[in-house]
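Field reference: sequence -> structure
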Amino acid sequence: MTVTSLVFRRAGPGRHPVPHKNKTVGGRRLGLEMQGNLYSLGYFSANVCLGTPAQRFDVIIDTGSSLTAVPCADCSHCGRHQHPTYVSARYDSLASSTFSAAGSRPYSVSYTEGSSIRGRIVRDVAWFEELGAGRRVDCPATFGCQTHETGLFNSQVADGISGLSRSRAYGATLFDALREKTGAPDVFSICLDEEVGALVLGGAVRPGLQLEWVTYSGADLYTVPLTEVSHAGGGRLGGRVGSAIVDSGTSSIEPYP
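Structure field:
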């Protein structure tokens, strides 16, 4: 599997990379522009490439799950995933010189909004491009090759999903693959605007930058304490509300009783 060059790309006229998000990791700058919106699409996604030569896919960036998965060439029930310049992207293992069937196993995942995917876990290499260097780094990785999609996974524009949670239920994440190969710090950040965003893998906080850190709990998910919920009209839920999961793949705030 190869992940496309981690470079910032314009989302459209007037949209430019966010300069302060280009962080350096041991001389390497690793970043990826995310595109999307919460109004018509309900998600933010980024381009990745799988296989050698590279096969490009548009995947939802999801901190609430750990699996990276895209449709297989032999998928019998996958959506068209209509993009402006291409349609029905499929990962073809026979077209990749770096594909490996070693350790392949079936998987099945159901998501809280009702959709599901299933297929098989495969191995290939992931490619990350160093910003400004013009050099790609190949990272052995595992990902899901989907043979069946239901619900939003079948009807959405995005081809697949890429999880960044700390769960290892389906093996290492793409970020794990990058860290293992390059020694990049175990840090990532996401910045989202209304229709564009930035994902930075690795990096460090600039010296002198004052930040207020929030400790997260949970072995797999990024769970943070939630002390108060308020809105512009002045209403609020007082006292300790509980905790919340920071989930970039979710477009709403859902309190639990």
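Note: The helical segments are 152-155, 174-182.
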